[in-house]
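Could you help me review a protein record that somebody else here produced? This is what I was given.
***
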Amino acid sequence: MFGSGNKVKLSDTVLQKAKVAAGILGCTLEEFVERAVETEADKAISQTGSKEPTKEEVDEIAKQLQGLGYLE
């Protein structure tokens, strides 16, 4: 479901929690993670007063996540 070969690294603890939560909600792990990330992204975007981040903001966030090892 992450498509295009996107990869996100999660700690074992977070992964286990996500699996349990997905099971409780009756959805796949991918569906749960996508929903959770979308919800948090919408919250962050709404707090900035902007509907959509600029290309520069997206590039900066991606750069930061790569530096932290969350994106390849």
Observations:
- The longest helix spans residues 29-47.
- The chain has a mean pLDDT of 84.
- The chain has three helices and no strands.
